[in-house]
């Protein structure tokens, strides 16, 4: 038996990034750019107005206010799409529309709302003049030439996945086509004598072929082009004939016929045509899997097509597709992020894992009060496709675990998520709070040491109310800060320090992206107002009351016993506290 990781590594070793093709930008959505795109124009091409208003000289508005307007002579009007014909001289203004080029001489635009135009119009006043009701700074409501993209600039880098905004950027550069890595053509064959097509009536002993459709939809979803070859019968002849038709494709996916049943002939056919491995992958569902290369000699040329043989059971076939075919398709498309986005969630049902394989449990994930919850979507038989239809994620129970209990933290691979965002792993956070002198810093220290001892990668986050002193006078970094640098980064082979001036106290949400995603656990001291799980350290001698309200707390570490439903842990016993944190907030493996 091989692990999921070993199987994936083998699958990926057989597929290559495909060659680029040039095509219309609208057909490139989701594909990887295969060229660096430089701009040969300025965007915007000219200084222009960001508002409907009056183009004028900022100087002419000095001292203007609602009670003492500055009056300017209106010498013309300019709409978007036309060029101004007049210049703005001192004491004059030109009526201007959003996007219209700024007239010569003007350096600001005052919007209609800050003029007396509406009043003038309603009172039938003279429109050859305009009253300006506010003082304008130079550049007000003016979009500068090249402000978005300067001519000559590298705008989109090779390797970028094209989303609607990049396609828009290409259009704004005047590019109607782009060079992108082409989409793989994936041939799909279902196998089995029991299968009939969707449009055929059911007959005794027969079932509709659903795998073809699930797989074809998956292929499209991840950017490939499905080529449906239909149902291969459980005979060498039928299957050989189908496989031959799949050899023009970039990859061939079959479903069924890879287990130990009498009629399982995919193996026999493949053994004759290429180098194919049959593996038992340490996962459930979806144990048997075939993978390799099919060779075909065609007019003196040898063709090689990677083949992935998925199990026949509908759920197994979809889950193995997700684990192995999806990354292969993404790799062929030139994508770098191949993993499914994963989150940590509290499981709401017990899940048992009996046979030491990695269990992918179908779950429905919801977010409540800033926390993800995953509930199992009913019977988990590998033929029950509706349990997949109800799921939006797969809870991953490690092979080393014999299961999880409701309330445990689990990792969930999200089936539905913003695919291009990559891995969104929520790092578990726990805050230790308590009154001053309650022993929270001591507990932090003990917990850090305890979790390090358990093999965790730990980050500690401390809130300092009263500022801090970390940069020593005389050091280079201190000197840079002295002359005004807003941030100083010092990097050495084994350490990184980042000192940044702030204009407000950062929240945990703002801090976490700086901490980074690589930690197994972030222990926080303080941040009492944040919504993260909190454990309060309580000492009798500091008074009867708790610092936090009971609803906010996950547990209390106390040197006495308190009349409350919240779990109480003994003061001075960090191992128990670490066990509690591990069980409740960190994935157990
Ligand atoms: P196999 O791997 O061929 O032994 O098939 C395992 C189970 O999956 C059997 O119950 C098959 O009937 C079912 N199965 C195989 N292929 C399909 C398919 N294309 N659509 C629906 N069920 C299938
Ligand atoms: Mg079969």
> Number of DSSP helices?
12
Distance between the termini: 20 Å
Largest sheet strand order: 15-12-16-20-19-17
Mean pLDDT: 90
The helix-and-strand class reads alpha/beta
User: Major beta sheet, specifics?
Assistant: 6 strands, mixed
Key descriptive features of the protein:
589 residues, alpha/beta, six-stranded parallel sheet, 12 helices, 20% helix, flat, binds adenosine monophosphate, binds magnesium ion
Characterise this structure.
The chain has 589 residues and is of the alpha/beta class. Helix content is 20%, strand content 30%. It is built from twelve helices and 35 strands. The strands form ten sheets. It has a six-stranded mixed sheet with strand order 15-12-16-20-19-17, with helices on both faces. Strands 29-32-28-33-34-35 form a six-stranded parallel sheet, covered by helices on one side. Strands 7-4-6-5-8 form a five-stranded mixed sheet, with no helix packed on it. A hairpin with a 2-residue loop joins strand 23 and strand 24. The longest helix is centred in the middle third of the chain and has 19 residues, at 314-332. It is flat, with a radius of gyration of 33 Å. 34% of the residues are buried. The site of magnesium ion has 5 residues, from loops. Magnesium ion (MG) is lined by residues 191-192, 256-257, 312.
